[in-house]
Amino acid sequence: MRRLDELTPGEEARVRAVQAPGRLLRRLFALGIRPGARVRLLRRAPLGDPLEVRVGESLVALRKQEARDVVLEDEG
Amino acid sequence: MNCPRCQAHPVKPTPRARKIALLGNPNTGKTTLINALAGSHLQVGNWPGTTVERLEARERTPEGERVYIDLPGAYSLLSSTPEEAIATRALLEDPPDALLVVLDAGNLERNLPLLLEATELGLPMVVALNLMDEARAKGYVLCPKALETELGVPVVPVVASRGEGVAELKAALDRATLPKPALTYPPAIERALEAIEAVLEGPARRARAALLLAGERVPAPQVAKRAAEAARAELAELGIDPYLELTGARFARARDLFKRALKGHNPRPTLTDRIDRFVLHPVLGPALFLLGMLFVFRFTFLFSGPWVEFIGRVQEVLSGWTWGLGLPPLLASFVSGALIAGVGTVLSFAPVLFFLYLAMGFLETSGFLARSAFIADRLMHAVGLPGRAFIPMILGFGCNVPAIYATRTLESFGDRLKTALAIPFMACSARLPVFALFAAVFFPKHAALVVFGLYLTGLVLGLLTAALIGRIAKTEPASGVMELPPYRWPPLRVLLAQARVRTMDFVRGASGPILLAMVLIWALLHLPPGPIAQSLYARFAQLLAPLFAPLGFSDWRLVGALVPGFIAKEVVVGALGVSFLGAEPTPALGLLAGAQDLAAAFLTALKETFAALFALIGLPQLLPPAEAPAPGLAAALTRATDARGALAYLVFVLLYTPCVATLVALRQELGRRWAAFSVAYQLSVAYLASFLATRMLP
Q1: Do B370 and A61 touch (CB under 8 A)?
Q2: Is residue B676 part of a domain?
Q3: Is residue B645 part of a domain?
Q4: With an 8 Å Cβ cutoff, is A14 touching chain B?
Q5: In what order do the strands lie in the sheet with B98-104?
Q6: Chain B within 8 Å of A40 (Cβ-Cβ)?
Q7: Chain mean position to CA B262
């Protein structure tokens, strides 16, 4: 089971589930990170954390720990 | 014939909408749109019971006054941040006459769920499809008419920054209508909503029912809350999460609406992608980030410096004139030393704040602030602060007051609290004259080391404070999830208008407390009239002095100078001079000589502002050349204490209390209780740290 923080920069995947607690879940949903959405990891910050993700037309930053709550579909 | 009263007050047609609230996702250009709609008649205040900024603008129309209210940016009425909760509460508790929903046309699909949620509020509505220029640049061809047909409300394409479509939008606001029902939910959810609606009264029943069903805390009668709980329990038994169902239905409908409005898409790499390749580059990014921070710091203080000095000159000239009036000395001293000096102190913060607000406004609207937060997040997270806290902390080294106002850009109250309480520990430039004086007199060989050590001590204690406050206030750490908005060129008009109203807000709030403090300290120093050694000030200081014996400085003149230091820490030096060497009389100034002085000072300020344009790029001067202390003062100081006491005194001055203007800022941003806390807390920390400092020297 792959998670969002395991993507390599430039890689894209579909979100299967968001297993975050209340407020964080709402925040991720609001920004478009929700089941079915395609996310692409753009880059990691210079110090390795947080990550920058593109979802639709939005650029979203989130910490590694928060990205772990986003489960991705297996490819293929 | 006609009733004379009616002639005097002809009946005007009542406008359809007098109070219009702007609702939209963050970064959709709502503030720019308000500015385009109502000119620059902006007003700022706070949302009731919060320290979140509330911006509104009034426009005079032939039919009467129209008020536009900028709601905090929200992705949904189902809040995930306190700001979103404010928007929801404002809409439910004090509903506007009409709702203007602002959408980012270049990110339409993600903006539509909020619009759909808003249709359930039962308010007349108009939609502004803003940022059409960006949408075109991204290759989107959109059809606003399709949205209009689907929603049944006017949809107006707009480019707020250039004023395009604004006239059409104003006209559409007179046609604001109730939207068509736009959403249907799965049967189980519909049934639950209807059950809650049945026990609700008043407007926005569908919206409130949906909020209650999703578990949101909104004001509602007990019976409705119980109905919502029952419905939630019932759905839970069926394995249905109402939040997922509600948002799922909205997202699906948003996608459908988006497809109907989309006439073509020809994706193109955006300017943002290209800029980010440099700004967020692993190596180049941090370098640009540091340069950017330096730029903001220097912009704020280099441009404001000449005007702060100018205000000081005006103050001197006014004092000189006062002394030239032939008033009784005590009265002249009161007018010049308390009133003029007080007003001058308040005003001297205005240029600093104005330029800071310009810089912060630029960073925030341009998109650079979010990038700097992205780069600094890891570093700041180590001490429990978000990346956005970096800029306020750095600004603190220039002046604590603008630094505390800069914490407004932090997202959660907890983060603002931690950062704002840490900022007064940053050694601001007003403390430098005190450091320079004592370091030169007592540690001539290690002056730079001592000053550097003080800066470092302040920084470390500030960061520890942030960590400590996080623990004791049990504030929920803000999530790191944030949007990196596209780069945009901020409209200068909006930046200037915002900087102006925010600066005026400070001047209004700070005038009272600063004047009061000035009058009190003047009274201490000058009553009863006579030599300073017999003043209330001396007696008060002598009373306090034994408290400081353990710190190695108990000379009443040293202790006393801490009291006026509350006005601004640099005043400590002047107060020491007066109490050790006696006051220098203020020279009286003739009308003409004073006017000449003012004109010259104004020209100098103008010239230096231009010079600052070039100095912006130069390297910062960390330690301005210290003026040699007056020999009399140096000798008197060495008689009053030793090196150990001097070090303790420096540590105490570094830490003991936020100055009165900083306190005003803390009160405005955090509330009275936390401002009081910061005084007590810092006094304790200062006492303890000074005591430890005396143990460090042999």
Answers
A1: yes
A2: yes
A3: yes
A4: no
A5: B42-46, B53-61, B64-70, B19-24, B98-104, B125-130, B155-157
A6: no
A7: 39
Model confidence at B622, pLDDT cuts 50, 70, 90, reads: very low
Task: Give the separation between CA B67 and CA B84, rounded to whole angstroms.
Answer: 21
B480·A66 Cβ contact <8 A: yes
Q: Is the minimum CB–CB distance between B290 and chain A shorter than 8 Å?
A: no
> Quick check: ipTM above 0.90?
yes
* For residue B528, cis peptide bond before it (omega within 30 degrees of 0): yes
Give CA–CA dist B429/B395, Å, rounded: 10
CA dist., res. B631 & res. B637, Å (int):
10
B488 lies within 8 A of chain A by CB: no
Picking from B268, B295, B316, the residue at the C-terminal end of a domain is B268
The CA distance from A76 to the nearest CA of chain B, in Å, is 25
Nearest-Cα distance to chain B for A34, in Å, is 9
Counting Cα atoms < 13 Å in the Cβ hemisphere of B678 gives 30
Q: What is the pairing mode between strands B64-70 and B19-24?
A: parallel
Q: Where are the beta strands (DSSP E) in B50-138?
A: 53-61, 64-70, 98-104, 125-130
Range of the domain at B252: 12-268
Average pLDDT over residues B214-238: 93
Name every residue whose Cβ is closer than 8 Å to that of residue B167 and which is 6 or more positions away in sequence.
none
The strand pairing partners of B510, in sequence order, are none
CATH code for residues A4-72 = 2.30.30.90
Q: How far is CA A10 from CA A6, A49, B268, in A?
A: 12, 16, 17
- Tell whether B479 and B538 lie within a shared domain: yes
How far is Cα B302 from Cα A61, in angstroms, rounded to an integer?
Answer: 33
Question: Who among A26, A60, A61 is closest to B80 (CB)?
Answer: A26
Domain locations along chain A:
4-72
**Quick one: B292 and B259 in the same domain?**
no
- CB contact A32 to B (< 8 Å): yes
- Nearest by CB to B480, from A23, A50, A56: name it: A50
Are residue B162 and residue B260 in the same domain, yes or no? yes
Angle at B375 between CA B369 and CA B378, to 5 degrees: 125
A22 vs chain B: nearest CA distance in angstroms? 8
Domain match, B206 and B122 both: yes
Give the model's pLDDT for residue B629: 65
CA distance B185 to B193: 9
Interchain proximity B79–A26, CB inside 8 Å: yes
- The verdict on B287 touching A (C-beta cutoff 8 Å) is no
pLDDT score of B433:
86
Q: What is the CATH number of the domain that holds B232?
A: 3.40.50.300
Q: Is B80 on the interface with A (CB under 8 A)?
A: yes
B255 and B291 belong to one structural domain = no
Q: What is the pTM of this model?
A: 0.86
Identify each DSSP E strand in B90-167 by its residue range. 98-104, 125-130, 140-142, 155-157
Nearest to B378 among A28, A30, A49 (CB): A49
Which among B12-21, B239-248, B520-529, B608-617 has the top mean pLDDT? Answer: B239-248
- Which is nearest to B660 in space by CA: B406, B421, B458, B400? B400
